[in-house]
């Protein structure tokens, strides 16, 4: 019996608890596993070894013991350093010679590592079955340590072949070193994650690279490749269809609009008042359709890198005056007043003046539509050494907070926009965003519902003068 007890004591993690839940005895393996001393444990409540989430289970075990039953299961155990381990435990009630319950004895087995291995196996099986390509690459040697089934099928490498391959090998075979360069930049920058879009092995991918650091070791790159080839093909087909339809519609619509304009100008004689009213409605809707088509064509050109930018040295102050004069009709139509500030000193910038006017006209049109008659719309130019900031401020109804995220989306329709009554294509701000970003700037807004909105955009200052022929290809590539 003594030998059996010694064998049990050397293998199991044992503790004895009294009826009050206080620890009476622990064996050496218990001390070695948890990192406590006996003085820290004996006489202390056993609950100190568990977290709050375990309280209900502890009450269940205690009730089971009081009934005289044995309890078996898995329980967490808090070590002296705060780490949680998991143990498979058998808890048996103890009785004195008179049959009175005196407490319990617990025998445990540490199953933490087994659980971790099971979790790793489940994770590996999940990664293996994913449709996305998964690579794990050593950050120092760039050797592939893991590829899931999708990645092996795409590269044609077996599970034995890829462990002899490196990112450099893949770059050489594919002729694309974008992923290799991204990994090098990630390692040198100290960042944790980066994303890029690239073409690899005949497919377009959205690539996410995450650095998995292991202590002070070089670590590993977790590289996830999501095939977006079908999405790109669908977008291209949709763009081509929209472009074709827009081109086919614009010519006849322009002709119809011109004919209605001639009728309204009395080229065919005086019209009855009712007919004239109906024709004016049709003419306004034709205007709106032409704007929609032009905006769609602009967006498609930008998306495909075909929108032309003609850069030249431009006095922004003169350009603002020109824009204000060109939009005088807005003041008459909506009863607002456009005021332009900071026009005392010329501000020179190398940019595309026509595209800047297009952006300003869109912002002024929006501001006028959402202003009350008699309101003032303020246009400001703020100059600093690195960039120029132009803002358009109105005192209209503002943009609801819950809808501000979709302001620059195509065909965005805000709850308070009333586009049917006020006009507009729902594309203007998307066009503005694309133009500003292609010119190297940023666009944004500040808005408080009920108090008004300020739209602003910045344009970078060039340190050297560049001609349009030099700069336009750069802008097309950026798009």
Structure description:
This protein has 479 residues and is α+β, with helices and mostly antiparallel strands. The chain has helices spanning 2-11, 28-34, 38-41, 55-66, 112-129, 149-155, 167-174, 178-189, 229-264, 273-303, 316-326, 328-334, 353-369, 419-422, 428-438, 468-478, and strands at residues 13-18, 23-26, 71-78, 84-95, 101-110, 133-138, 144-147, 193-200, 203-212, 220-227, 312-315, 337-340, 348-351, 376-383, 387-394, 443-448, 452-460. Helix 9 (229-264) packs antiparallel against helix 10 (273-303), helix 11 crosses helix 13 and helix 13 packs antiparallel against helix 15. It is elongated and about 120 Å long. The chain starts with a helix and ends with a helix.
Structural descriptors:
about 475 residues, alpha+beta, five-stranded antiparallel β-sheet, 16 helices, 17 strands
Which percent range fits the helix content? 40-55%
Secondary structure tally: strands = 17
CA-based shape: elongated
Largest sheet: 5 strands, antiparallel
Q: Supply the helix-strand structural class.
A: alpha+beta
Furnish the topology, listing elements before pairings:
Elements: H1 2-11, E1 13-18, E2 23-26, H2 28-34, H3 38-41, H4 55-66, E3 71-78, E4 84-95, E5 101-110, H5 112-129, E6 133-138, E7 144-147, H6 149-155, H7 167-174, H8 178-189, E8 193-200, E9 203-212, E10 220-227, H9 229-264, H10 273-303, E11 312-315, H11 316-326, H12 328-334, E12 337-340, E13 348-351, H13 353-369, E14 376-383, E15 387-394, H14 419-422, H15 428-438, E16 443-448, E17 452-460, H16 468-478
Parallel strand pairs: 12-14
Antiparallel strand pairs: 1-2, 1-5, 3-4, 4-5, 6-7, 6-10, 8-9, 9-10, 11-13, 14-15, 15-17, 16-17
């Amino acid at each position: 019996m003594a030998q059996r007890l010694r064998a049990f004591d050397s293998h199991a993690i044992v503790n004895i608890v009294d009826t009050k839940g206080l620890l009476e005895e622990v064996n050496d393996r218990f001390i070695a596993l948890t990192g406590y001393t006996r003085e820290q444990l004996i006489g202390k409540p056993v609950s100190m070894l568990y977290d709050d989430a375990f309280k209900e289970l502890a009450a269940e075990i205690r009730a089971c013991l009081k009934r005289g039953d044995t309890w078996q299961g898995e329980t967490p155990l808090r070590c002296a350093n705060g780490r949680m381990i998991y143990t498979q435990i058998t808890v048996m009630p103890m009785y004195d010679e008179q049959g009175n319950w005196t407490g319990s004895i617990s025998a445990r087995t540490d199953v933490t590592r087994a659980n971790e291995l099971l979790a790793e196996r489940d994770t590996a099986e999940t990664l293996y079955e994913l449709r996305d390509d998964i690579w794990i690459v050593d950050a120092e040697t760039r050797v592939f340590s893991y590829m899931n089934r999708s990645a092996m099928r795409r590269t044609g490498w077996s599970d034995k072949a890829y462990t002899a391959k490196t990112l450099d090998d893949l770059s050489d075979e594919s002729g694309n070193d974008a992923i290799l360069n991204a990994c090098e930049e990630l390692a040198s920058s100290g960042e944790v994650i980066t994303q890029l879009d690239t073409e690899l092995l005949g497919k377009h991918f959205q690539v996410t690279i995450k650095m998995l650091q292991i202590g002070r070791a070089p670590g590993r790159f977790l590289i996830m490749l999501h095939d977006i080839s079908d999405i790109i093909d669908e977008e291209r087909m949709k763009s081509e269809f929209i472009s074709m339809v827009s081109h086919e519609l614009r010519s006849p619509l322009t002709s119809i609009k011109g004919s209605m304009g001639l009728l309204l100008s009395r080229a065919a004689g005086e019209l009855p008042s009712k007919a004239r009213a109906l024709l004016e409605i049709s003419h306004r809707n034709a205007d709106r359709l032409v704007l929609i088509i032009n905006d769609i064509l602009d967006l498609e050109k930008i998306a495909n890198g075909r929108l032309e930018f003609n850069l030249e040295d431009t006095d922004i102050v003169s350009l603002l005056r020109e824009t204000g004069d060109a939009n005088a009709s807005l003041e008459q139509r909506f009863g607002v007043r456009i005021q332009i500030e900071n026009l005392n000193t010329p501000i020179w910038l190398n940019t595309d003046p026509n595209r800047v006017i297009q952006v300003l006209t869109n912002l002024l049109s929006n501001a006028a539509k959402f202003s009350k008659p008699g309101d003032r719309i303020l246009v400001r130019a703020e100059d600093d050494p690195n960039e120029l900031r132009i803002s358009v401020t109105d005192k209209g109804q503002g943009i609801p907070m819950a809808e501000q995220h979709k302001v620059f989306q195509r065909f965005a329709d805000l709850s308070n926009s009333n586009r049917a009554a006020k006009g507009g294509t729902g594309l203007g701000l998307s066009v503005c965003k694309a133009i500003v970003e292609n010119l190297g700037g940023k666009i944004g807004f500040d808005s408080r519902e009920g108090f008004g909105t300020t739209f602003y955009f910045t344009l970078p200052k060039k340190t050297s003068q560049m001609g349009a022929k030099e700069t336009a290809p750069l802008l097309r590539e950026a798009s």
